[in-house]
């Protein structure tokens, strides 16, 4: 899934957009926004142009102008590829949804896939897979675990987390929303199985088969944590481990949407969500996850275990599923 950035279908509008891009690259975002506004007078139905106008306006400090552009974008972008609703919510002009903006995230990472690793590792100082794997290795020693039978790497991307845990796992499955990411990681031969799917859809209805689930910088695109855990935990065996990261904030809100269009979670609310989901917290650390625009991004690194006393955690749905012998599978 891609976004049509390159042409409006009008030569003059495209030329003005090109000049606007050069001005923006030179730091003159106000002038870039002015040129984009002129281009859109010629091509008012060009969704990608409205996104550019909104972004340039935002960087120029004209938030009202950005919001106006994103409202035009929202009206044109029926599939939500450009994330206009998220942009509006991040600036208080709309209410943020609780779930993943599937079309936006899919389009974002389809475009990001070819340069994903170089950007994260070389430019942003990304360390989450290494940090989570270090926590996991230490806990395996403490618990006397020498190997995992079956692991699911949610939001596997290009396999950075999978590379870390591969030697610890007999059967490793990767799930990602982006076909381009799946294609990139498929070249590495890390996973025994790869599925293109949204994670809640992929896990819903599964048997409790995974003794390890990882999610490195994945839930930051999912919004509220409880619905995610409600899908993840039933797919874990009793005693299975969950290793994941979240961006953190210091406020009382359980979650809020940042201008980066990633969600930040509250520490206390995260702890409560884990407990409510029937997970025992084994390790809970605060750390710098990466750099973003020159600033460190604070986050949480969490290792939790599903209660071994599965009977105490059965929901009505679990009981019905077990009683009728239903089985589920991954949505590809």
UniProtKB/TrEMBL annotation:
Highest taxon listed in the record's lineage: Bacteria
Molecular function, one GO term: methyltransferase activity
A Pfam cross-reference name: Methyltransf_12
Gene3D superfamilies reported in the protein's UniProt record: Tetratricopeptide repeat domain, Vaccinia Virus protein VP39
Keywords from the named record: Methyltransferase, Transferase
CDD domains registered for this protein in UniProt: AdoMet_MTases (cd02440)
SUPFAM superfamilies: S-adenosyl-L-methionine-dependent methyltransferases, TPR-like
Methyltransferase type domain ranges (all copies): 152-242
GO terms (BP aspect): methylation
Residues annotated as signal peptide: none
PANTHER family per UniProt: TRANS-ACONITATE 2-METHYLTRANSFERASE, TRANS-ACONITATE 2-METHYLTRANSFERASE-RELATED
Protein name: Methyltransferase
Protein's organism: Devosia yakushimensis
């Amino acid at each position: 899934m891609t976004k049509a950035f390159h042409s409006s279908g009008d030569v003059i509008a495209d030329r003005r957009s090109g000049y606007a891009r050069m001005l923006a690259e030179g730091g003159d975002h106000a002038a870039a926004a002015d040129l984009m506004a002129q281009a859109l007078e010629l091509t008012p139905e060009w969704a990608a142009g409205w996104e550019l106008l909104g972004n340039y306006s935002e960087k120029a400090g004209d938030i009202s102008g950005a919001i106006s552009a994103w409202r035009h974008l929202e009206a044109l972008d029926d599939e939500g590829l450009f994330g206009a609703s998220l942009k509006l919510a991040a600036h208080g002009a709309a209410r943020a949804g609780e779930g993943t903006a599937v079309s936006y995230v899919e389009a974002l990472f389809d475009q990001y896939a070819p340069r994903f690793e170089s950007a994260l590792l070389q430019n942003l100082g990304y360390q989450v897979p290494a940090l989570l794997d270090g926590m996991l290795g230490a806990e395996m020693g403490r618990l006397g675990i020498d190997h995992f039978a079956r692991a699911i790497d949610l939001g596997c991307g290009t396999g950075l987390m999978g590379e870390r845990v591969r030697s610890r796992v007999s059967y490793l499955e990767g799930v990602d929303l982006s076909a381009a990411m799946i294609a990139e990681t498929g070249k590495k031969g890390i996973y025994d199985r790869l599925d293109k799917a949204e994670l809640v859809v992929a896990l819903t209805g599964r048997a409790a088969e995974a003794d390890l689930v990882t999610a490195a910088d994945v839930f930051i695109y999912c919004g509220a944590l409880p619905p995610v855990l409600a899908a993840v935990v039933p797919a874990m065996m009793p005693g299975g481990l969950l290793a994941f990261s979240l961006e953190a904030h210091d406020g009382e809100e359980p979650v809020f949407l940042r201008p980066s269009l990633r969600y930040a979670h509250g520490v206390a609310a995260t702890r409560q969500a884990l407990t409510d989901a029937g997970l025992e917290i084994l390790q809970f650390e605060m750390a710098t996850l990466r750099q973003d625009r020159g600033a460190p991004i604070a986050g949480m690194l969490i290792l939790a275990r599903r209660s071994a006393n599965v009977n105490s955690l059965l929901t009505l749905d679990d009981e019905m599923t077990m009683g009728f012998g239903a089985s589920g599978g991954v949505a590809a």
